Amino acid sequence: MKFKEQRSSSVPEVNLVPMIDVLMSVLLFFIITSMTLTSKILSDINLPGISNSDNTEKQENNQPGLIIGIDKDKNLFIREEMVNEEEMFQNVATFLDENPSGEVIIKADQELSYEDISQLLNKLSKISDQQVFLAIDQEN
Which end of the chain is more exposed for a tag (fewer CB within 10 A), N or C? Predict the structure, then answer.
């Protein structure tokens, strides 16, 4: 009876597939957590939507942004806390001084009138007219 010679390798083999699975699971956890935290900030605000049949690519930019929320009762929010108009302007001015290339994004409830949003945009344009944007909810 002949036995095969077993070669013993001195270098242990490392199976990378389980490690990659664990890393992808952790990455997915952090992505989902960060998405839920940013959506909780302005959860009571319904953005107006548009339907767009064209699949336009979103431009990704890594510029910091300040999100201002306005609910249907015209309450202003910055970072989950309600602020008055004067505090909002101070926060925006401070943010733009610290981040000259930063963007101010306004998330206004769809039940607000265009006139209310327009007045706020006009007031914010006195601080910076090229860094203030209005957010919409794009439906595919």
Answer: N
pLDDT by residue for the chain (140 residues), tens only, comes to 666 666 666 777 888 899 999 999 999 999 888 877 765 555 566 666 655 444 433 444 556 688 888 888 888 888 778 899 899 889 888 888 888 888 888 888 888 888 888 888 888 888 776 677 777 765 54
- Give the residue carrying structure tokens 């336009």: 56
Tell me the CATH number for domain 63-139: 3.30.420.270
Cα 44 to Cα 92: distance, rounded to the nearest angstrom: 22
Integer Cα distance of 37 and 32 in angstroms? 9
Cα–Cα distance between 41 and 62 in angstroms, integer?
A: 20
